Give the backbone structure.
Amino acid sequence: MASPLPLRPFSPSLPRLSVVLLLALCAPAWCRFKGFGRLHALGQQQLREAPEELWFPQKLDHFNGADDRLWKQRYFVNEAFYRLGGPVFLMIGGEGPANPAWMQQGAWLTYAQKLGALCLMLEHRFYGKSHPTADLSTDSLRFLSSRQALADLAHFRTVMAESRGLTNRKWVAFGGSYPGSLAAWFRLKYPHLVHASVATSAPIHATVNFPEYLEVVRRSLASENTECPTLVKEASDAVAKKLQDPKTYDNITKDFNLCSKLQVQTEMDSAYFLETLAGNFMDVVQYNEDNREFEGVVGTNITIKVLCGVMGDRSLGDPYARYAAVARLMMDTFSMKCLDASFSNYVRDMTNTSWDGTAAGGGRQWIYQTCSEFGFYQSTDSPNQPFTGFPLQYQVKQCASFYNISAEQVAEAVAQTNEYYGSYDIRSSRIVFPNGSIDPWHALGITQDISPDLPAVFIKGTAHCANMYPARSEDLPQLSLARDHVFVLLQQWLKQ
């Protein structure tokens, strides 16, 4: 579920992407590439009884009637709560493998049990096991877009309704992060097919440069300890200064336990290293205290409080030494023997077009979507944030290197996305937009009511997609109230 985005969680086994993002629901996500939601590669939890993988014959190109090619799209079904005449809940997959754990847990299943809903989850094209093409070449990726994904949902919904006798049932779309955006846009573009949508942590506005992400990271760190972002800035600045002197590279390699001696031959090399270190804080802030353990996610015990505790520990040395201690803590948490901070290795992985490649888990695909549709580049261009060294230019250059998409084309694609979906001026009905104040993605979302039929639920003190996760006793009262409020809205809307 929880991208999406620029859109994502932390997966030490996958290369870092240069854009953050978002998740199949914030949930079925996924791969951790810097992308929409800083993506996370979530582990697959041992399920009580794994739901059966089902396959839907899907069209390759919905916008070319002369192209009749088909491929198999993965989906899951949970009929446990369905009562005759009940609604149909459709969980939308995102920028990573659809995680079947969501067919057994999550707030949406609590709603389904109370409302007698049939539950379906459709994996997003080009992610997980849903492979529309033979490879991930740029020519193949032209079939990867939010518009094709929405058309997948529309066709799936139409055929499933006809085959299962659900044509007259009310359908409700759910999604978190990038899939949250899709949930809102599904209702916007196909109102005759979906009755209502829950668009959690959904970035609704596309933007090439997204420096506000790191501004929210600063505020979220400061909410724990006002000195914390200042110490992080001192540390990040110290690393950047050391990178200017090759004589320090041996020490940096040792301090951060790099897999190979640090090599900085271009600004891209230094930017990648600085972004990798900043990513430790970005990921933890985005998913701070979210109840993600049921997905098989590692590291949920590392919170803003923990990171700021390390940064404030004078016994570890100066802020630079504490910054290195955070990096080692993250490596230990994810059982990493060393940190691969090589930009050349990253480029190698990102330009591998095979489905067997390291970045095929979602990284190459998601970054393509940011270049061709969304932007979402979390740069250090704002002075009101604690990091340094990875400006917008560093992010956009990767579009040209990986997909031959120029900076001008990225800007035009982002403008077209906002023109097509309406950005913040979305005009529809029966869509609720939950967001958390800690989550950096709320800066691109709907945090105030647009109308009575387009309400926002802004949850203070919570992070990315928090309301989608299973309830627990330690949840903040406002988080519990938010889940209840969404349920009341669904009750009301299903009566309409």
Summary: The radius of gyration is 21 Å. The first helix runs from residue 107 to 115. The domain at 208-417 is CATH 1.20.120.980 (Four Helix Bundle (Hemerythrin (Met), subunit A)). Confidence is low (pLDDT under 50) at residues 1-25, 27-46.
